[in-house]
């Protein structure tokens, strides 16, 4: 990687205060990764120099804590100050991008005193250094995480109208997916409710757009990458987190069936190899939420299977940290509020730290706890192939708490291995395919992967898998309501249609309930 005077932020600040926790899905090490802070590290952000002129240009080998050389500038009001470009030049910097819809700009330093000067520009509320963060270790494919090929070419398949049943039983791996049945999705499909016409933007890593189950539903023209130097259909490894997530939303029924198998997928690549800058995610949200008539994706729903956990109370004594946290929170609030104002529903994963946020009040989750975001916890069975249908069991890794979780959805649960230490083999017998794996593998979510061809599939678990399931349910709901509902209507209808598990009413594990696709789609009440 090429750098010019690269700056590194404190290890403690990265590992504890800003640890990304989107989806832990490594099937070899099924315990969520826990970053341990170096006790000798200094947590005082103010001691670290962001005045250096280094600007990252190669993002192929990013490391957690790398400073991109770019600064997020937040205006005091809804509009950017007049003559901002000239003011930034006078402060020793260069304006490289603006987001006038939320009053945010991006600049780079061209002089060593830029960071000190730029905050004094009239009309500027804050200047935040942008950082590279790692939110999950990308899953590795192993003998216990078999990547399966369809070994069959795709034939033409007609589309479905409401009232005409969707043929989901002809999928190659029919009988392998417990998650759709857990939320009564087949009942919606049988009524012809498939999410057709609803646009779902998936903000994630790379998307294998030619996958046989994704290609029919991918809007290639609208799909973009906000990661410099990479296209939306590029990533590393053979899993590709974004590809797995997209399949949960809208796999077309060739090999498997997504919750909304005829919804439109807009791939927005804002992470690479599991890492990303805040600017990339911010740009992804704004692009997805902007109408097509104004140059955006025109999404109805945004799914973000990612998140940052900020330990703000333990670091509150550090003035630089306080300012950094507040600035990030305000910036993301502006982005999610922009989506809300444009009628776009934002759904995010709650995280995989197995933490009760009602107790750990020192933690804040970005973007799950930002304004107008629906946060999803994960459930999954233990021993599904053995006959256990406890689909509503909270996954052992899922973050929870009434202050965090709005709803729950199937995300997979490898507790047989991770909690019980059970690695015994089981055999799944589907309609056309049979496979033998450790029993816990089948309790995870089966979806599309990059693999080595256009027809690969595999298992994973995490709230990253639960969030797209909920997004699929919302797509079904929108289809039967003329293709569009505003976010307030979506939240209200989810509350009415979800299954009340756990304590009556809103509770720390399931929020307002476990999503139900058929009820959300009005198929039955």
From TrEMBL:
Give start-end of the signal peptide: 1-21
Q: Which family does it belong to?
A: Belongs to the peptidase S8 family.
Q: Which residues form the active site?
A: 204, 241, 464
UniProt keyword Membrane, yes or no:
no
Q: Name one Pfam family in it.
A: Peptidase_S8
Molecular function (GO) terms for this protein are: serine-type endopeptidase activity
**Record domain Peptidase S8/S53: where:** 195-513
> Which GO biological process annotations does it have?
proteolysis
Q: Which residues cross the membrane?
A: none
The species this protein belongs to is Anditalea andensis
Keyword annotations of the record = Hydrolase, Protease, Serine protease, Signal
- What name does the UniProt record give this protein? Peptidase S8/S53 domain-containing protein
Claim: Protease is one of the keywords in the record: yes
């Amino acid at each position: 990687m090429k750098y010019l005077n690269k700056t590194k932020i404190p290890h403690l600040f990265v590992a504890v205060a800003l640890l990304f926790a989107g989806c832990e899905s490594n099937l070899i090490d099924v315990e969520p990764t826990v970053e341990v802070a170096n006790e000798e590290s200094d947590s005082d952000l103010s001691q670290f120099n962001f005045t250096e002129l280094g600007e990252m240009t190669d993002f192929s080998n990013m490391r957690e804590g790398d400073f991109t050389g770019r600064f997020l500038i937040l205006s005091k009001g809804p509009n950017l100050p007049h003559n901002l470009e000239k003011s930034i030049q006078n402060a020793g910097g260069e304006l490289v991008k603006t987001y006038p819809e939320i009053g945010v700009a991006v600049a780079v330093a061209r002089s060593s005193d830029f960071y000190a000067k730029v905050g004094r520009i009239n009309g500027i509320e804050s200047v935040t250094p942008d950082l590279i963060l790692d939110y999950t270790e990308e899953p590795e494919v192993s003998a216990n995480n078999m990547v399966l090929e369809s070994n069959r070419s795709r034939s033409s398949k007609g589309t479905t109208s409401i009232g005409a049943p969707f043929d989901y039983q002809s999928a190659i791996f029919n009988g392998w997916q417990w998650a759709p049945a857990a939320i009564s999705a087949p009942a919606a499909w049988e009524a012809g409710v498939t999410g057709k016409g609803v646009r779902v933007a998936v903000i994630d890593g790379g998307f294998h757009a030619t996958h046989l189950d994704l290609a029919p539903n991918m809007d290639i023209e609208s799909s973009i990458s906000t990661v410099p130097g990479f296209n939306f259909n590029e990533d590393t490894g053979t899993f590709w987190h974004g590809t797995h997530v997209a399949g949960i939303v809208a796999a077309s029924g060739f090999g498997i069936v997504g919750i909304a198998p005829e919804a439109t997928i807009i791939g927005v690549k804002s992470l690479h190899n599991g890492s990303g800058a805040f600017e990339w995610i911010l740009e992804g949200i704004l692009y997805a939420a902007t109408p097509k008539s104004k140059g955006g994706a025109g999404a109805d729903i945004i799914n973000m299977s990612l998140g940052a956990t900020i330990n703000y109370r333990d670091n509150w004594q550090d003035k630089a940290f306080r300012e950094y946290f507040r600035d990030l929170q305000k910036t993301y609030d502006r982005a999610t509020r922009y989506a809300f104002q444009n009628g776009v529903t934002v759904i995010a994963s709650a995280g995989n730290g197995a933490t009760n946020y009602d107790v750990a009040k020192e933690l804040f989750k970005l973007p799950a706890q930002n304004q107008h975001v629906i946060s999803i916890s994960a459930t999954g069975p233990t021993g599904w192939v053995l006959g256990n249908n406890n689909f509503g069991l909270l996954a052992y890794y899922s973050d929870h708490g009434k202050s965090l979780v709005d709803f729950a959805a199937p995300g997979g649960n490898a507790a047989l291995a991770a909690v019980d230490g059970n690695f015994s083999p089981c055999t799944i017998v589907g309609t056309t395919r049979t496979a033998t794996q450790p029993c816990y593998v089948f309790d995870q979510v089966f979806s599309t992967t990059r693999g080595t061809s256009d027809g690969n599939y595999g298992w994973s678990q995490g709230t990253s898998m639960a969030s797209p399931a909920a997004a699929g349910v919302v797509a079904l709901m929108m289809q039967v309501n003329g293709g569009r509902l505003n976010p307030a209507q979506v939240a209200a209808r989810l509350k009415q249609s979800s299954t009340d598990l756990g304590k009556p009413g809103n509770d720390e594990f399931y929020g307002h309930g476990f999503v139900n696709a058929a009820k959300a789609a009005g198929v039955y009440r």
